[in-house]
């Protein structure tokens, strides 16, 4: 029997809300069309930013948004994106398809978007093709409260007060599109660039170094050794790439059980990667001062047929919901070191939460997972033990279930569970240990469908949606339930402390 024991009296750390963060790059239709439609658009907008997308994202409490890239950031020169829009120069989005970038969405528009979302901005600076001086000036333009030519310019451009900017990345994928550097070289450049990223007045910048990807542990080792004391965060990128390899990705919607299984297996690898990168960080930083920031993660499939291959527009199925559910459970469990994560990407690109077509908008299964999991934001991770069987396919095994358990400020215990099995329901027995909390009532929500490739389309936008789950039987400290095949669930227990009535 599969069993979950919740040790309600053992808190294992705070789950930073930023683990539920997102990423928006100037790539395909993420910024333009996804967010920015311009003030003259018939699509309802607030200062050019579409209102339907903002309203949907506010509902799931997006805590932090990373911008402008990604690889785009390493080509971006911030001065191109300020001033009257009609006068902004048109540039080329070299990395993503060579399309024209009119720079209508720049610093002011991004900060406005973050204010509308009530999300913290996380800006990634250009190390690969930008200068130290340019980076220094951008920080001054955005955050300095005193008088200087740059702050006068900011005021002329309509922003009197400086913005609050906490998170700043110093380069992106410096081992690849950010300059193809060796870690030793980047570590020195990082030390140099970060020296000129100043914290003005009350605004304290949290500096994030461009980190490793996948299992490149050498990058983490060198960065921590040579530059660890100069950083607040070190990033990590890991994508769940469907198909055999990067060159031969699988379809987002046309796949069999074998391919489904393989994707979940790859998603589960995140646990191992975090454990091993964290162990290296522990060597240099046992106090865990430096955060691990997984600022790009998610599923990467073939683009939708007929769309620009450099726009990375892909559909999103129940399989993607499982990838999100499993990964977020892993992040929660690593909340001692992982302080932020940013799904790639928020609208119309890769594992998007939202897809748009003209004035229409649909929510993907992945959106619904973030909706379910928002209860973990800033909650206390609780100790738990999950003993479950394996899901076996062609001699390979993955666990049947994935879980995370936390307690929110109101005392509710929230359990997020995934049943990874594509076709079989799974029974689970659970219990709250005797010295901790006593459950009095439980509410459940579930995301599932009859097929693992079920997805929402503009024609059928609610094929995959959340539903109430009333299948939990609660008896004292014990509970039982049966999870539908390929499902993501949230159980919320209203609890009393033992001995209280
Ligand atoms: O998210 C798409 C791209 O993937 C980003 O621009 C880059 O950083 C990564 O390789």
List keywords for this structure.
eight-stranded parallel β-barrel, 501 residues, ten-stranded mixed beta sheet, single chain, globular, 9 helices, alpha/beta, binds alpha-L-arabinofuranose
Describe this structure in words.
The chain contains nine helices and 26 strands. Helix 5 packs across helix 6 and helix 6 packs parallel to helix 7 (257-284). A hairpin with a 5-residue loop joins strand 19 (401-407) and strand 20 (413-419). With 501 residues, it is of the alpha/beta class. The strands form six sheets. Strands 23-22-26-20-19-16-1-21-25-24 form a ten-stranded mixed beta sheet, covered by helices on one side. It has an eight-stranded parallel beta barrel with strand order 2-5-8-9-10-11-12-13, surrounded by five helices. The chain has a two-stranded antiparallel sheet with strand order 3-4. Helix content is 23%, strand content 31%. The two termini are 32 Å apart. The model has no long low-confidence stretch (mean pLDDT 97). The structure holds alpha-L-arabinofuranose (AHR).
């Amino acid at each position: 029997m599969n069993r979950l024991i919740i040790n309600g009296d053992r808190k294992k750390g705070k789950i930073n809300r930023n683990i539920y963060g997102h990423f928006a790059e100037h790539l395909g239709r993420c910024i333009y069309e996804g967010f920015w439609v311009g003030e003259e658009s018939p699509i309802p907008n607030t200062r050019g930013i579409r209102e339907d997308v903002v309203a949907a994202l506010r509902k799931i409490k997006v805590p932090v948004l990373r911008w402008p890239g990604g690889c785009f950031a390493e080509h971006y020169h911030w001065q191109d994106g300020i001033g009257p829009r009609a006068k902004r120069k048109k540039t080329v989005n070299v990395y993503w398809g060579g399309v024209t970038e009119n720079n209508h969405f720049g610093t002011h528009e991004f900060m406005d978007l973050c204010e509308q979302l009530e999300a913290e901005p996380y800006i990634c600076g250009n190390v690969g093709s930008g200068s130290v001086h340019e980076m220094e000036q951008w920080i001054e333009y955005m955050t300095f409260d005193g008088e200087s030519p740059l702050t006068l310019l900011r005021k002329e451009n309509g922003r009197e007060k400086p913005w609050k900017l906490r998170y700043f990345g110093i380069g992106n994928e410096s081992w690849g599109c950010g300059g193809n550097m060796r870690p030793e070289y980047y570590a020195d450049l990082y030390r140099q660039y970060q020296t000129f990223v100043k914290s003005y007045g009350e605004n304290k910048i949290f500096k994030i170094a461009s980190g490793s990807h996948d299992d490149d542990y050498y990058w983490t080792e060198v960065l921590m050794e040579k530059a660890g004391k100069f950083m607040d965060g070190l990033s990590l990128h890991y994508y769940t790439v469907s198909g055999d390899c990067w060159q031969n990705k699988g379809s987002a919607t046309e796949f069999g059980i074998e391919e489904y299984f393989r994707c979940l297996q790859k998603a589960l690898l995140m646990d191992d990667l975090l454990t091993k990168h964290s162990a290296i960080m522990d060597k240099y930083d046992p106090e865990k001062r430096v955060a691990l920031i997984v600022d790009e993660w998610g599923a990467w499939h073939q683009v939708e047929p007929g769309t620009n291959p450099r726009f990375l527009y892909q559909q999103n199925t129940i399989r993607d919901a499982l990838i999100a559910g499993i990964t977020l459970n892993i992040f929660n469990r690593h909340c001692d070191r992982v302080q932020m994560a940013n799904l790639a990407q928020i609208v119309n690109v890769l594992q998007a939460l939202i897809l748009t077509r003209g004035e229409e908008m649909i929510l993907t299964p992945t959106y619904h997972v973030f909706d379910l999991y928002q209860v973990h934001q800033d909650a206390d991770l609780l100790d738990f033990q999950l003993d479950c069987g394996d899901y076996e396919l062609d001699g390979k095994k993955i666990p049947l279930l994935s879980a995370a358990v936390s307690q929110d400020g109101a005392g509710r215990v929230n359990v997020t569970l995934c049943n990874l099995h594509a076709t079989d329901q799974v029974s689970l027995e659970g219990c709250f240990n005797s010295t901790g909390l006593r459950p009095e009532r439980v509410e459940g929500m579930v995301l599932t469908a009859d097929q693992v490739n079920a997805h929402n389309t503009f024609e059928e936008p609610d094929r995959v949606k959340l539903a109430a789950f009333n299948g939990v039987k609660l008896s004292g400290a014990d509970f039982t339930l049966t999870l539908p095949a390929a499902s993501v669930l949230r159980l919320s227990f209203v609890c009393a402390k033992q001995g209280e009535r």
